[in-house]
Amino acid sequence: MKIKVGVIFGGETVEHEVSVITAVQAMEHMNLDKYEVVPIYISKDRMWYTGEMLKDIEVYRDFNELKRYAKRVVLTKIDDKFYLQKTKGLFRKNVTDIDIAFPIVHGNNAEDGTLQGYLDSVGIPYVGSRVLGSALGQDKVVMKQIFESAKMPIVDYTWFYDSEYADDCDKVFANVKKLGYPVIVKPATLGSSVGITYVKEEKDLAKAIEEAMKYDTKVVVEKAVQNLVEVNCSVLGNYTHQETSVLEEVTSDEDFLTYADKYVGGSKGKLKGASKGMASASRIIPARISKELEDKIKETSKEVFKLLNLGGVCRIDYLIDKKTNKYYINEPNTIPGSLAFYLWDKVGKDYSELLDEMITTSIKDYKNRSRKVYSFESNILSNYGIKGLKGMKGIKK
Question: Residue 38: which of 107, 95, 88 has the closest Cα?
């Protein structure tokens, strides 16, 4: 019997379209001899839909037209089985059941632990990092604080809330000046290079901060690495074992890898060309760094994976000063664009095999967690009478 995999993608996030691209790629490469793929699309207004048509990248040209033909559903649990139920009308009707969820989402309200928390509350097994790992991987401020506590290599930085900037922008400017220009200004909880600005002089700082604050309440400002080389390493596994991919060196004509570099590439806006996702970005594989530095980065990647409680496949991005040969952790991507499959096929693991290992590991982890104690069969409230439930005065000491 085939395992029914519910691939969840989309969501209310500025990375919505990136999620669609990654999910359609993944669905195209799942082993159909082992899995029955059930697409679950979350629209920008947070409605859930399913239907075979959602596997085709072309239908996403018009989101409103798509919603006319797809079935609107909710996820529910009935007698230890998980169903997608049609919600239109007075009565709910089961559309299909699924065995495991596969979140392929990017950005806030999805990748940041929001969706994972919902899946945990329903009780369904799912692929990838759980709530804590997802949240830590999304918030660049908390993430950096954890890296600092573990004495891991990161660039100098400062951060602030939008309210703090509104109250005392001069203090923010002074803290940034201590870092020294140039700097990188980022929203704290976004990915795909959305809202990021490279700032060479103080006169351009306010505009960059305002751009970042369009997307987030927290802003991070980092000291820009000079003589920059950007490399990425993917990690596959769970808390008991980790495996690293080949390293890639990413290239860009800009001061950092932009959204267009990552997802538009040479497609000039054509949907089919853009559907290559991160695989279309300019890169050199393997990265042109020494074997010694490569080994250090791979080992650091495993440490980051465990430290942040990550699972499934992630991609960890690094900044290297090629003159000093120092490397710095930039950030992890808990659900990377294209699931970083292009880094694994270089070591003999094709996309279908990568997806299979992610699903298999998640099922094993779910079975292991199911043996842990999360609640008690006994009900301590059964000893209290109705009067005792009216307030603390009724509880016997």
Answer: 95
Give the strand pairing for 3-10 and 100-103: parallel
What are the beta bridge partners of residue 78?
A: 81
Rounded CA separation 60/196 (Å): 26
> Confidence band (pLDDT; 50, 70, 90) for 107?
confident
Give yes or no for a contact between 137 and 314, defined as CB atoms under 8 angstroms apart. yes
Nearest to 355 by CA among 11, 25, 20, 64: 25
Each residue of 190-213: pLDDT tens digit? 866 778 999 999 999 999 999 999
Which CATH number does 156-223 carry?
3.30.1490.20
Task: Please state which of the four CATH numbers 3.30.470.20, 1.10.1790.10, 2.60.40.10, 3.80.10.10 is assigned to the domain occupying 226-364.
Answer: 3.30.470.20
pLDDT band, residue 17 (cuts 50/70/90): very high
Fold of 3-126: Rossmann fold (3.40.50)
Predicted TM-score of the model (pTM): 0.88
Phi, psi of 114 (to 5 degrees): -60, -55
DSSP-derived secondary structure letter, 126: B
